[in-house]
Input
Amino acid sequence: MSHISIKSKFSEFSFREFFQDLKEAIGGSERDFTKIPLSKAILLLSIPMVLEMIMESVFALVDIFFVSRLGAEAVATVGITESLMTIIYAIGIGLSVGTTALVSRRIGEKRPEAASVAAVQAIFTGIVVSLAFSALGLFFAKDLLRLMGASEPTIEMGYMYPTIMLGG
Output
């Protein structure tokens, strides 16, 4: 009776290689992602995004921890503002995914100039969108809190928090 040897992807997993990739993803490098295996490219590109999301969650938790000493209205203001920030992040991620697709296609087509144009247009669009959200935060913080269902005492006590967070 012969034994069939089946190697899974997990058995080929190397912690040493993973930590080298993690170090590279965090430190950054000049690398052509079209010339490395797709799984490695995805890993190198996803690590900074995952770390950013973790840090944003930690930021929100620390915010709530310190603000909780000020009372329920303050905690409600932070929670509502974080909900608004999540909507803004979702829009930013949508723009980022679209930009990545455009730039990737142009690079795949061997048209680096067109990729550069798409990247510059995305940066310009990002600036315009961020200015629009900043204006909303600066001038309509109370209205945004009201729209999100905050009570009047919460709005009056906490409107400066979304003004600062959204207004920059």
Observations:
- The chain has two domains: 15-26+35-70, 77-168.
- Helices lie at 15-27, 38-67, 72-108, 112-147, 152-158, 160-167.
